[in-house]
Design a protein that fits this description.
CATH superfamily of the largest domain: Glycogen Phosphorylase B
CATH class of the largest domain: Alpha Beta
Strand order of the largest sheet: 3-2-1-4-5-6-7
Order of helices and strands: EHEEHEHEHHEHEHHEHEHEHEHEEHH
CATH architecture of the largest domain: 3-Layer(aba) Sandwich
Number of domains: 2
Radius of gyration: 21 Å
CATH topology of the largest domain: Rossmann fold
Strand content: 5-15%
Shape: globular
Largest sheet: 7 strands, parallel
Structural class: alpha/beta
């Protein structure tokens, strides 16, 4: 237990915004309460222990900044992915004298650095110089280690710690209760057949491609269904953020649905609109999990599938958890070959949990030092 009155402020994306960061924080906070950390969480959506104060709403950055300066937490841990948040809150942490830990998720830093460099090279360098003032930087994506080293960051202040924390399988009934009765009834029928599971948001990269590789998955599944081994398979894509799509995202979503109709997959490729629900209760009943992202940072859902002994196929766009079955990004033929070979020998294949690192322990150790 740290000695300050306030040990830790954690700023990041919180529920109900389901995603990699919010799931990480949802699972991390009970661990911190267990170890008696006194926390301030900028969200009103947690009630997990008397040590947790949630009296700031996440969206009000100015209030968060003032609280950081006033309360002077021993540690300020930022999971912020937006440039303005990082600039404001790192400066607040410097004023408060806090130990600042920044976790970099996804490709946010690459995108920000390249954006600033196009405007003005000096702006980009000033941004990096501000990040260098953090006490420690955690990268979820291993490729950032080289980027930070090449740009003069202190190697001893950088760690590669994926953000995966194991789910509590005792919460299965609780998590299933978050699905509607219609969804549960629908899924019970789907899982009679063999199901391939995937998930993500509608995030178009062009007219015909997207970050989560959904258009790729539709064409892949069209080709896969031609094989007798997979004639009774379904593919369920758990769609996040469906109620907050922009005009361009809605247009792309319409294109995807037209693509499904074009390939006569309307009964086989299913968008399941999910809200405030986790993925693992559906993984348990799935045959395979696919993460087909064209851009990615690690893929906590892959870790999750492997922990549940569900074969997980992942694109080769970044470092992946051990036991992932890696396919060439955007290569339909390669994925079909891998999954066909696996299905043909399904009963002979076994998944052994050999991932020995417990990432939450590494994070707790970093807090304590």
């Amino acid at each position: 237990m740290l000695k300050n009155d306030l040990d830790l402020i954690i700023v990041g994306q919180y529920l109900p915004n389901i995603g990699g960061i919010s799931i990480h924080l949802k699972r991390l906070l009970p661990l911190l309460v267990k170890f008696n950390y006194k926390l301030l969480v900028p969200s009103k959506l947690f009630s997990i222990g008397s040590n947790v104060s949630t009296n700031i709403h996440f969206n009000n950055l100015i209030i968060i900044k003032k609280k950081i300066i006033k309360l002077k937490p021993k540690i300020l841990h930022l999971h912020s992915i937006f440039i303005l948040e990082r600039i404001l809150l790192i400066n607040a942490g410097l004023k408060s004298g806090s130990k600042i830990i920044l976790t970099i998720h996804g490709d946010s830093l690459f995108n920000q650095y390249n954006f600033l460099k196009k405007i003005n090279y000096n702006f980009a360098q000033k941004y990096l110089n501000l990040l260098k003032k953090c006490s420690h930087i955690i990268v979820v994506n291993k490729k950032y280690l080289n980027f930070l080293n090449e740009n003069g960051f202190n190697k001893s202040k950088i760690s590669h710690i994926p953000s995966y924390i194991k789910p509590n399988l005792n919460d299965l009934d609780k998590e299933l209760s978050k699905f509607s009765k219609d969804q549960l009834s629908f899924l019970s029928n789907i899982f009679v057949d063999k199901c391939i599971l995937a998930n993500g948001y509608i995030k178009p990269l062009s007219k015909f491609s997207d970050v989560y590789g959904i258009s790729f998955l539709i064409f892949f599944f069209y080709e896969l269904k031609k094989k007798n081994l997979f004639s009774n398979f379904k593919l369920v894509f758990c769609l996040l953020g469906y109620n907050k799509m922009t005009k361009s995202e809605l247009k792309y979503y319409s294109y995807l649905k037209q693509m499904i109709l074009k390939y006569n997959l309307e009964n086989d490729f299913i968008f399941l609109k999910v809200k405030n629900t986790e993925l693992w209760p559906l993984m348990i009943k799935s045959r395979y999990f696919i993460r087909s992202n064209l851009s990615d940072g690690w893929g906590n859902s892959i870790n999750e599938a492997i922990d549940l002994k569900i074969p997980a196929f992942a694109s080769d766009v970044c470092s992946r958890p051990l036991q992932s079955i890696i396919f060439k990004s955007n290569d339909v033929d390669h994925l079909i070959k891998l999954i066909t070979d696996y299905e043909f020998n399904y009963n002979k294949n076994t998944i052994t949990i050999s991932e020995s690192r417990v990432y939450s322990n590494e994070l707790l150790k970093l807090y304590a030092n």
